[in-house]
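Step 1: inspect the first sequence and its tokens.
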Amino acid sequence: MAKKEVEVEDNKLPFITIGDIQLTADELPDADSKRWFAQLQELTQIKAQQIYGLEKTQVGIDGFASKLVARYHEGNPPVVKGEGEEESSSESDEDSE
């Protein structure tokens, strides 16, 4: 599948890149092609917004997971087993059973 991009450079017309071809809406031959160009622009913008939203979601997930792990370790400090090896207190509880 060809790579599709829609870009806008400083004060230039928006263009799309499909494979190795760059096109502006003005270069397209008919109204249908210009509508497709506009749809590609819109879909590319929606995709960028969705990617940004997913990245924000992942940052939130990572942040809350870190807080949860830190809180867990506050109440359950790691137990030192021997030469530099650590074992969480929950693991040592399981081993003793």
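Step 2: inspect the second sequence and its tokens, then contrast the two.
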Amino acid sequence: MNKESNNNFADVLAMNVRYAVLTKNSRIEVLVKPSPKQLRKRGKKGWHLFRTIDSNSEAAHLLEESFRSALAEIEGIGSYTNGKRKKATRSERKILASR
């Protein structure tokens, strides 16, 4: 399989993925070659499956993009697309200004 995908934990348990990017509140976790047991455990503890990456030649690049997207989503600034950050919305700028 040569693709990047967004799945739920039940779908990923049957797959053999190289990386799983998980998020929870203000945390990001990357699992390398996760076992079904690791994924079930994280699912029960409230982690959200942000993205999975299958084994391919671009896996490292896709992992970096996934990590940046997850970080941008957690920070609430906007998502990265093609290496460029989206402009923050008016409400996001107000939040950032109050920090």
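Step 3: confirm your contrast with the notes below.
The mean pLDDT is 79. The CA atoms of residues 60 and 69 lie 14 Å apart.
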